[in-house]
Amino acid sequence: MKRRPELLAPAGNLEKLKMAIHYGADAVYIGGQQFGLRSRAGNFSYDEMREGVAFAHANGAKVYVAANMVTHEGDIEGAGDFFRTLRDIGIDAVIVSDPAMIETCLTEADGLPVHLSTQASATNYETLRFWKEEGLERIVLAREVSMDEIVKMKQEVDVEIETFVHGAMCISYSGRCTLSNHMTLRDANRGGCAQSCRWKYGFFEEGDLLTEEMEARDEEPFSMSSVDLSMVRHIPDLVEAGVDSLKIEGRMKSIHYVATVCNVYRQVIDAYCEDPEHFVFDPAWEEEIWKAAQRELATGFYYGIPTEKEQLFGKPRSIPQFAFAARVISYDPVTSMATLEQRNHFSIGEEVEFFGPGFVRFSQVIETMEDVDGHLLESANQAMMTIRVKVDRPVATDYIMRKRKGVRARTLV
Ligand code: SF4
Q1: Cα 57 to chain center, whole Å?
Q2: Which site among 21, 195, 246, 348 is 20 to 30 Å from 169 CA-CA?
């Protein structure tokens, strides 16, 4: 039996917070309405934080608030009040990168633990020691550190370490990027990143006409973005290295993504920590991860510096994509009818897949569907429609129904 690292999930709103915890997260990180880096994520009001904290604590989970923007003159105003309010709400820690914000939290909100954000690019144990001596409880490492460096850090400094295990990577050093600032006038380090690195570009020399050049060379447009991170096959290495918290990226991602990824990582962590000697990686875990993947997956900087193979260059390939079709609200075991809240259109005869916490999943064809008044339906195509569907196996509240939505071009690496 090994000590289990925390599984830390993103929660862009209250619904995602509850689903993440339901699907196995030990903790979630959210944004408040100030000082965060995701201005377009559904940031939490103080009342929503209270509800989220009550739900999380009732389920043995924690809630952290990211307040990790780069602060310009005047931005720190009100930070003391903000941190004190978070502490009084019961938030378990704040994730901060700006030294002045850290100082403000430590001096003005006594008792609220501070975690150093990945934005601060901590990449060596001396840096960890510095921040520990400043009073920080946890360091979220830069994504650019290797597994060997993590092992060294854990040997040298007794401070909690959190590392990213899954999700999008920045092509810049842990988010220190101004592509978005220049191209869209949206400040990536004050919550406005337009994801400019993921747009499609073409190489051309001055004087060339971009499209003609590309046609002549039979070139694909390229993206500056890297492939996404997935350490799903390498959880044993992270556990053995002594990492305290395994973080999933993606506060802007869907409920389907959060539930799928939490469900899988929960399985892998538990399977390894419960019986490391007999641990065998189940390919079904990785198959499941692909159902919520948006790009190719790789191991980032953990096992070496990524090469051009980890960038989104090259010819696309196609991989089946799945969409969040509905969420189960309730289930009647007498009639085998599940009441669903619809999120995407689906019809009689369509093959769908249900999944739930604990890695339960099964496929079936929809044969019987009705509205809340019992009228038979051929299809469900109104947003957030409540419908009943006959299911082949028992389901429970908060199970998710997904459907195949065709294929999407990926980049072959
Ligand atoms: S544009 Fe890309 S590299 Fe820059 S901050 Fe946004 S996601 Fe990161």
Answers
A1: 21
A2: 21
Question: Probe ligand 1: pick from 70, 176, 184, 195, max atoms within 8 Å of CB?
Answer: 195
CA 23 – CA 7 distance, rounded (Å): 11
pLDDT tens sequence for the chain (413 residues): 899 999 999 999 999 999 999 999 999 999 998 887 766 556 899 999 999 999 999 999 999 999 998 889 999 999 999 999 999 999 999 999 999 999 999 999 999 999 999 999 999 999 999 999 999 999 999 999 999 999 999 999 999 999 999 999 888 887 778 888 888 888 887 778 888 888 887 766 555 555 666 666 666 666 778 889 999 999 999 999 999 999 999 998 999 999 999 999 999 999 999 999 999 999 999 999 999 988 889 999 999 988 877 777 666 666 668 889 999 999 999 999 999 999 999 999 999 999 999 999 999 999 999 999 999 999 988 778 999 999 999 999 999 999 988 655 555 43
> Tokens in use for 146?
């290797």
The alpha carbon of 175 and the centre of ligand 1 are apart by a number of angstroms equal to 6
Rounded distance from Cα 104 to ligand 1 centre (Å): 28
In order of 35, 50, 90, 112, 297, the CA distances from 85 in angstroms are 14, 10, 9, 10, 39
Q: Which of 327, 319, 329, 328 is nearest to 292 (CA)?
A: 319
Q: Whole-angstrom Cα distance, residue 303 to residue 327?
A: 38
Evaluated on CA atoms 109, 113, 119, 123, the torsion sign reads: positive
Q: How far is the CA of 177 from the centre of ligand 1 (A)?
A: 6
**pTM value surpassing 0.90:** yes
Residue among 173, 197, 199 whose CB has most ligand 1 atoms within 8 A, to mutate:
197
Pocket (CB within 6 angstroms of ligand 1): 170-172, 175, 177, 179-180, 188, 193, 195-197
Give the residue whose CA is nearest to atom 4 of ligand 1: 177
From the CA of 125, how far away is ligand 1's center (Å)?
A: 26
